[in-house]
Records
---
Amino acid sequence: MSRGLADTSVFIARETGRPLDAGALPDELAVSIITIGELRAGVLAAADVITRDRRLGTLAAALQLDPVPVDESVAAEWARLRVLLRDTAQRMPVTDSWIAATAMALDVPVVTQDDDFPAIDDLRVLRV
């Protein structure tokens, strides 16, 4: 059985109708609490009721996956990742680095539609 950690872009794709490569999705998906925070921010930033309702539906769907918290193993991977990014002169948004660290701690790929995840040892990325 294949597993992966869904990045925020996967949920936004579903919300906006952007195509996903369903055949490439792993059998089992998890979600980081960081993604939940990003989705909550989207709800709060909604400019109108229709957008807010749509985003609330996306947040509710993500919450069904029992979000993975930031724990000691995730924090250790994040620290290692930040130093590696610095040493290799690569950049990654901070929230994405927490999502990447969560995937690394779980030993699963990040499932994404974004290009925010650079090629790094120990970080597997599955583009859908």
---
Amino acid sequence: PSPLLRHRALWLRHPLDLAAIREALSFLPGRHNFLGFAKEEVRAGERELYEARMEEVEGEAGRELRFYFRGQSFLRGQVRGMVGTLLEVGLGKRSPESIRLILQTQDRGQAGPSAPPQGLYFLEAAYPPEKLSPR
């Protein structure tokens, strides 16, 4: 991998099962308690996730995978916990169905490790027009 990307992307040595990751992603959208993916000090975890998807793109260093999550709001550590768990699915360390189990049990110990922060970007905050209008 390029040394210029080491702080902007996570590089994996092993191939990923992208079909398994896509199957696992399909369990995430909807209103769930995401405590199983958040930092352990988080107490209340119900959130609505509108979209969870992965794209393959040709990037600076070859093939890149990009994960996109769109939701009402996110818990501290939730996105990194979801991505770390999805990577374990892709590496064959857990089944796609394990995502459903984590959502049901809300047990952080059932999830994979948090993905490192390299490559994690906040793209935008969108607000309904009525929230932006002066009162």
